[in-house]
Structure formats: structure tokens, C-alpha cells
Amino acid sequence: MPEGLAAVQARIAQIQRFSQSQRLPAARSADSAAAVSFADALAAAGAAGAAGAAPGTGAVGKPVMPVQGVDINSLQTHSFNNVRDSGKHAGVDIFAKKGTPVVAAMSGELVEASWNGPNPMGGNRVWIKADDGTFHYYAHLDSITVKNLPKGTRVQAGQQIGTVGDSGNAKGTPPHLHFSVNWTQGGSGNGYKGENPVGNPVDYLRTGLAGMQTLPR
Length: 217
Ligand SMILES: [Zn+2]
Hints:
It is built from three helices and ten strands. The protein is 20% helix and 23% strand. The chain folds into two domains: 3-50, no CATH class; 72-211, Glucose Permease (Domain IIA), CATH 2.70.70.10. By secondary structure, it is an alpha+beta fold. Strands 3, 4, 5, 6, 7, 8, 9 and 10 form an eight-stranded antiparallel beta sheet that branches. Strands 1-2 form a two-stranded antiparallel sheet. The termini are far apart. It is globular. A hairpin with a 4-residue loop joins strand 6 (124-130) and strand 7 (135-144). Helix 1 packs antiparallel against helix 2. Residues 89, 91, 93, 178 line the site of zinc ion.
């Protein structure tokens, strides 16, 4: 049995024991700290699976949906690369009620979590360097949960990093998360003009980096 799979099974057993000990219905266990452990285990299993892959593919498991409660099949894949007045749209807009939790799509290191300064395009936004080597951009947040944490702080897949909003140049539009996956971290004030997309983020969310068609770096 692959080491990663054994780790996942051990974690699932741990979560089940936790849920039972807390008398949580199954659905409630998603709210518990155990869910974070589960996400860790999935990431670990992905990393173990990727160990046999060609070096440089950067595959580290499958990402999680960054907006709580959203079905991936509801995402508008065509919103990627739409041409808008401020340039090509480098991400996907994931619509949800204002205040809906935004979680890290993949474990990684916090790069930036703040208002983006005098240029308001992204508004409250977070950059995370994911463990597959890509840079994830989360913009138009209403609030930032991981605000002002030091650069390099570890963030786990599934961990809340903020809430859905309409900050920045999305002010007054239906609340949404602008999510993009990039080869580099964009300029701090450049909104999606500063993004350097790996490809369609919807494909990324479905398969992870290894399974998708990528754009040149
Ligand atoms: Zn957008």
C-alpha cells in the first residue's frame, strides 16, 4: 500500500473517532479542526503520489474548491481569458454570498495578505505560493482572515483565508472571489494585469497542475 494512502486511512479513522467523541453528525465534522487534518492527509497523499512523477511537474495533489459550498460544475470556465477594459481576465470569478468563507486551494506559504495599496484593483487580496510551485491569487475579499501574518507562514489546504466580497474594482458588483493560478507573483497593485496565468483555473481545480494544459511561463 502506498505510504500516502495509509496516511489518509489513518487520518480518516482519526476523524471518525473525533466525530464520534464529539457526537458530531457527519456533516458537522467538516466544521471541526479534524477537517484540516483530513486536508493535510490528502495533500500528503498527493505528494506521495507525485514522488514517482517526472521531476518538475510540480504535482502536489488535487486542489480544493476555494469558496466554501460551490460546486465546480457551476463555474464559468469561459470567464478565463475574457477581454475586459482592464486587460485579459487571468482568473475565474467564483460567485457566492458576501461573507462566504474563502479557503486555501492548496497548502503553501503566505506571500501577501493585505489591501493592495493605492491601486484598488484586487482590493483585499491574498497571494499564496502553493506547494506545487504556483502562485495563487485571491482577490476582492470582504475580509482577510490571515491578514498581517508574516510572509512565509504556512497555510493548509482548506484553511480559511478570508471571505467573499466586492472590494477593489469589483465594488458594487455581485460578490465573488477572483481566483487565479500563476507562474509568478504579480505586481502588488496591478490586479490581473500583473498575473501570469498557468492556465484556466477551473481546469486547475479539476485536475491539479499535472493534469491540465498549461500556458508558457
Ligand atoms: Zn475576476
